[in-house]
């Protein structure tokens, strides 16, 4: 399972970002293998809803669950404050964009089944894209780490 922290437009000095949001210029951290299915979690600590779009893949929205934002920010602990709520009826079926609500963890299952290479995933609000709320993912071939 992959977990992604919040985005924050506040500038962060360059260098290691342990515990800080990642930005476009940081190394690619999402490297799913072609032919796999991953459960991704978006942890939204902001006050905004973010429509998150993944390029060249489709996914199923699983659920959303509220959590203690302040505890996550201060201690890095993900403590849920309510039950997980399944995707709404209009969100069922294959999607390429998911709504990440404030104070919620949004989970979705992504199948990486057609293409290898570098692709983008990002917030679909133009101003947020301009504030680097976008990341690269690299879909790698199934056999890229096998020894011959």
UniProtKB/TrEMBL annotation:
Chain positions covered by the region annotation Disordered: 1-28
Domain of life: Bacteria
InterPro entries named in the record: Cu-oxidase_C, Cu-oxidase_fam, Cupredoxin
Domain Plastocyanin-like, chain residue ranges per copy: 26-140
Listed Basic and acidic residues bias regions: 17-28
UniProt protein name: Multicopper oxidase domain-containing protein
Organism per entry: Polyangium sorediatum
């Amino acid at each position: 399972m992959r977990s992604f922290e919040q985005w924050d437009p506040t500038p962060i000095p360059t260098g290691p970002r342990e515990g800080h949001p990642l930005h476009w210029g940081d190394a690619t951290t999402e490297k799913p293998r072609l032919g796999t299915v991953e459960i991704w979690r978006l942890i939204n600590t902001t006050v905004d809803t973010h429509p998150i779009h993944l390029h060249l893949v489709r996914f199923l929205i699983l659920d959303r669950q509220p959590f203690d934002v302040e505890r996550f920010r201060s201690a890095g602990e993900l403590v849920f404050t309510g039950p997980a709520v399944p995707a709404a009826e209009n969100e069922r079926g294959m999607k390429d964009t998911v709504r990440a609500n404030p104070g919620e963890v949004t989970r979705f299952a992504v199948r990486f089944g057609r293409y290898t290479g570098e692709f983008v995933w990002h917030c679909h609000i133009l101003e947020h894209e301009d504030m680097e709320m976008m990341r690269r993912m690299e879909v790698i071939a199934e056999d890229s780490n096998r020894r011959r």
